[in-house]
Amino acid sequence: ASWVPGDWTAKQIQILQELVPGASKIALLVNPSNPMHRLMVAEEAPSAARKLGVALPIVEATADEELDIAFASAAAQHADAIIVFGDVLIIRQAPRVIALAAKHHLPAMHFFRQFADGGLVVYGPDIFDLLRRAGGYVDKILKGIKPPELPVEQPTRFELVINMKTARALGLTVPPSLLIRADEVIE
């Protein structure tokens, strides 16, 4: 699952605002058939919009062919940037999503590390840490602990990856304050 504790959408918006000064309209690309995306749109997004004084137009894609329409819609609404919520559809179409963001000149925030090759910025849970912790769960279950007895865990380690080549292509200057916080900077 891609659920992250805390005011995640607000954190993503703040990073994008550091990258794109003056960004006041940030589109959210969501898959409305994903319950986590629906929850984020219903609960976190309105709170983040009020707190940070930004407009968060929602663009939707439930199938591959709808991605083009979603990005064109974000551009038509004059979005300053876009946050790409992660799910199976988005991951499967990663190269296309990166290309569409570039085509529409939209600085994009991605959730999964695999988008760092070409995507502007990735801010999300450390997937390798999640997999390692999942292995611990499997070990406990194999040793006889019943799954309902195990606590629900949320991500605790996060990665910030910035692609400088993509930033330059978008005409963005990455502030030193953001570079210092980055776990990885791709040149």
Question: Could you name the key traits of this structure?
Answer:
alpha/beta, 187 residues, 2 domains
Report on the architecture of this protein.
The protein has 187 residues and is α/β, with parallel strands linked by helices. The chain folds into 2 domains: 8-125 and 158-186, Response regulator (Rossmann fold, 3-Layer(aba) Sandwich), CATH 3.40.50; 127-156, no CATH class. The protein is 45% helix and 16% strand. It is built from 8 helices and 7 strands. The protein has helices spanning 8-19, 35-52, 66-76, 88-92, 94-103, 127-142, 164-169, 176-181; strands at residues 26-30, 58-60, 81-84, 108-110, 121-125, 158-163, 184-186. It has a 7-stranded mixed sheet. β1 (26-30), α2 and β2 form a beta-alpha-beta unit. α1 (8-19) crosses α2. It starts with 7 loop residues before the first helix and ends with a strand.
How much of the residues is beta strand, in percent?
15-25%
The main pleated sheet reads as: 7 strands, mixed
Query: Could you tell me the mean pLDDT?
Result: 89
CATH homologous superfamily grouping of the largest domain: Response regulator
CATH class of the largest domain: Alpha Beta
What is the global morphology? globular
How far apart, in Å, are the first and last alpha carbons? 30 Å
